[in-house]
Design a protein that fits this description.
Blueprint (H helix, E strand, L loop, with lengths): L4 E5 L4 H12 L3 E6 L6 H4 L4 E5 L5 H8 L4 E4 L11 H20 L3 E5 L11 H14 L6 E7 L2 E2 L6 H10 L2 E4 L5 E2 L2 E2 H11 L8 E5 L5 E2 H12 L4 E4 L2 H12 L9 H6 L21 H4 L1 H4 L4 H8 L3
Parallel strand pairs: 1-2, 1-4, 2-3, 4-5, 5-6, 6-11, 7-10, 8-13
Antiparallel strand pairs: 9-12
Amino acid sequence: MNIKKVCVLGGSGFVGTHLVNKLGMAGCSVRVLTRARTHAMNVTVLPEVEVVEANIFDPLELDRHFVGMDAVINLVGILNEAKPGDFHEVHVELPRKIVRACAATGVKRLLHMSALHAGPNGPSAYLRSKGQGQAAVLEQGNGLAVTVFRPSVIFGREDSFLNMFASLLKIAPVLPLACPEAKFQPVFVEDVAQAYVASLNNPATFGQSYDLCGPGVYSLRELVELVGSMTGVKRRVVGLGPRLSYLQAWMMEWMPGRKLMTRDNYYSMQVDSVCDCKFPRIFDVKPSSVEAVAPMYLTEASPYHGHRSAAGR
């Protein structure tokens, strides 16, 4: 394949912004579909990027905007439901609509974002719905070349993981932590984006699924303490047992505003988010560690700090 025109769904998000930039650097012309142009300010200034306002859940709009594209990349996902059925709509029905639109418009290449340990027997609705979505794209035919990526938690500038704990440590003299021994193998957002770009024209990746993890495995407690050490804001971290962890998740689930944790998140953390293999060699990426990257954006001395604060992140 010689892919030059790529349509990205979720291109204005955390991973999407990095990926769209790398696609442009690789010589691709990129179309980003977004609900509102104001959500995509980070990519509107990039050359070779076209930002289009669209309802991605409308099959007719997908058909219209996929025409002329060589490939489609789906990064759309949610961690929590605003209402019952959101996981199914976003993680299952949308991938099905994307596959149908690719078939209708002649798109031959699809890259899809799933999640580590997604599957029908996952402990959470999030992981089960992600599993259904990846099955929907892998099990279809019609000559569509599909590659699925299944990352652990992704970190990097403006992430919602390490930055969240940095913010909590600043305001909490003592931090009660649910599921403190849950394991994670964080992967750097730039490494994830590079894997996508490297697979785009590589036939060896067609029909394959790849788990993406960084070089280090940490308990949640270790990650929080590491963030505290990096930011110079050390707090006492009190690990909660299973019952209190569940209770904390239930209480946070009903709090107004952005949900820091829900019972479904609690269920997801019952499975360690770690890989059984190294970063796939096929992408020629040496994964970056949390220790090498996170201090550059977590500390106030970082040039990223001011931009993140100005943006309200």
